[in-house]
Amino acid sequence: MKVRKMVKEDIDLLINIRMDYLFAEKGVYSSEEVQDIRTKLEEYFTQHLNKGFIAIIAENENEVLATAFMSIVERPPMIAFSSYLVGTVYNVFTYPQYRGKGIATKVMTELLSEAKLLGVAAVDLMATEKGKPLYENLGFRVSKYTSMNKFPLTPAK
Prior knowledge:
Layout: E1 2-5, H1 11-26, H2 31-48, E2 53-60, E3 63-75, E4 84-94, H3 103-117, E5 120-125, H4 132-137
Helix pairs in contact: 1-2
């Protein structure tokens, strides 16, 4: 098994992985939705891959086992950090036949190593109950803040 950072030559593979993740989360999409999201993913990955967005893959020969993504943004400096880069982890996904073998741990470890090399000061994520033990073993802790979302963004009433 090889764990590595994805590069621009991997964009088609990256799109397929993201689509697999979306199908696993939601299920069925119309052909129009699939084409629309594939087009938008290609634009996004072409523009952002390894420029504020990193993706790690675990593979065995030409078979994908697992992935994890991170978007990195710069927030205003804090007293503890003169440059405050923050990573948000998402799309941590192991194909069902490879789960329970420690592969997600290896992918996440590599993702965190890449983030450290880039000077990321803090990393956050939203964990499912199933994924929580993995992240706790990697040093993540539940924040005193509650995660809240507004989606889609519409004017407040």
